[in-house]
Write a structure and sequence with these properties.
The protein is built from 14 helices and ten strands. The protein has helices spanning 6-14, 17-28, 43-48, 91-94, 116-131, 158-165, 210-213, 254-266, 291-312, 318-331, 354-372, 380-384, 388-395, 404-412; strands spanning 2-3, 35-36, 57-67, 78-86, 101-108, 134-136, 145-156, 184-187, 194-197, 336-337. The strands form three sheets. Strands 1-5-4-3-7-6 form a six-stranded mixed β-sheet, with helices on both faces. It has a two-stranded antiparallel ribbon with strand order 2-10. Strands 8-9 form a two-stranded antiparallel sheet. 34% of the residues are buried. Pfam families: Transposase_21 (PF02992).
């Protein structure tokens, strides 16, 4: 395994005046509106702000993922990447390849059985940087710089986070790492065997507590404690992010796919500039399409081209489908408004915030799925959407903590 010391990476970054200026800019511009625009606006950071009381108290987001860099069949090599994003940098800088940090990089024929064996050097260094910090001496500063570093987030995709928290995984009986919902083993929609599904109840299940993540309740799917729970910045199940993928088990008829794909191909030059993904004809290249391609399809194509197709065929579920689209569109904004205080008096009116509307839209989608759809369509991705509004309140906007940054780093490698 190759380990690049975090202290050296941070010291090399802050040795440049331009980076110190960006750190100061972020520190001075924190929380200027009553909106969520970054992780520093979430409720979790409000409780942690005392650890970030100077310009060079570094907030880090950790992501992990494993992938096969070479397609060599049985001889394929697995690479485990631990990726850090420096949240003190402005949002238009922090996700650039040159500004993201790769710390442990593990190579081997198989995925590591215990990711924490590779994380231990980083966790030891984080503990030291959190408690004691380090001194950086630069010629163009009047005084030495004291640097502290704290972890704000440890996240990844569903399997990656399951490894981080010793969770039995999303295919187990307690398959949600955020709550204790019990799954049902049902025949898959295509009849190809059993699968785990998460309809729950009409009400959203409350989150897990410290007993789960300290390993005190292994019968609920978290088998052991993990080192993150001992950090001063640890707060809740949302410390591990919220994997809210809007993929659904629904499909269009083949003739509808062909017609929509043809329209997308013909109108490719008319697509908005600056989309994260490549919409195109995703039906013709579904295996090579990325998550961001399907997200753009959901937000931009489904409420237009697909909606027209469904409406012409008398589809009875357009309203709940648009609730899903509207909820996900709000979650993808770079600024999400919220009401920090309830009305002072009963009966006082209050304009619904973006977060209120998002919560309502996803509640409508959940109610529809629970009451009107077969429960073997309620996959884990749909269940995770029920926690999205609470996760945004705690962590700020999803765009600021998205796993897209590590996906970009993997593509670069």
């Amino acid at each position: 395994m190759r380990y690049l010391p975090l202290s050296q990476l941070l010291g090399s970054m802050l040795a440049f005046p331009s980076y110190r200026a960006m750190f100061r800019e972020t520190f001075n511009n924190r929380r200027t509106t009553e909106s969520l625009t970054d992780i520093f606006d979430g409720f979790a950071f409000e409780d942690q702000e005392r650890y970030f009381n100077d310009e060079f108290s570094v907030g880090l987001a950790l992501f992990c993922d494993s992938f096969a860099p070479f397609d060599a069949g049985r001889n394929s090599v697995s690479m485990q990447l631990i990726h850090l994003v420096v949240m003190n940098l402005p949002k238009d800088e922090r996700y650039k390849n040159k500004n993201m940090l790769q710390v442990p990089i593990a190579l081997g024929p198989l995925k590591p059985k215990n990711i924490h064996s590779f994380l231990s050097p980083l966790m030891e260094e984080l503990d030291q940087l959190s408690k004691d910090g380090m001194v950086l001496r630069v010629d163009d500063e009047p005084d030495d710089i004291m640097i502290h570093a704290h972890l704000l987030l440890a996240s990844g995709d569903l399997p990656g986070v399951s490894d981080l928290v010793h969770h039995t995984g999303h295919t187990s009986h307690y398959g949600c790492r955020t709550c204790r919902i019990e799954s049902f083993s049902l025949i898959s929609p295509k009849g190809g065997g059993q699968g785990q599904y998460f309809p729950g109840t009409e009400e959203v299940v409350t989150e897990r507590n410290d007993d789960d993540f300290f390993g005190r309740l292994p019968n609920y799917g978290i088998l052991a404690s993990n080192p993150f729970v001992h950090l001063v910045t640890y707060h809740s199940p949302f410390f591990y992010g919220q994997h809210a993928n809007a993929n659904t088990p629904f499909t269009l008829e083949r003739h509808q796919q062909i017609r929509i794909g043809k329209v997308l191909k013909e109108s490719h030059l008319l697509m908005p500039i600056g989309l994260d993904g490549d919409i195109g004809d995703i039906f013709a290249r579904s295996k090579s399409s990325r998550a961001v391609d399907f997200i753009d399809f959901l937000v931009f194509v489904l409420p237009t081209v697909v909606y027209e197709q469904l409406e012409q065929n008398g589809c009875p579920v357009l309203e709940p489908l648009m609730s899903l689209v509207n909820g996900c569109s709000l979650a993808l904004q770079w600024e999400i408004t919220y009401n920090p205080e309830p009305p002072e008096r009963e009966g006082d009116s209050q304009q619904p915030s973006d977060l209120d509307r998002l919560r309502r839209y996803l509640k409508e989608w959940h109610t529809f799925m629970y009451n009107d759809m077969p429960h073997n369509l309620y996959i884990i991705n749909i269940h995770m959407l029920t926690h999205l509004a609470d996760a945004i309140g705690v962590l700020g906007i999803p765009r600021a903590i998205s796993t897209r940054s590590i996906e970009r780093a993997i593509a670069m490698i």
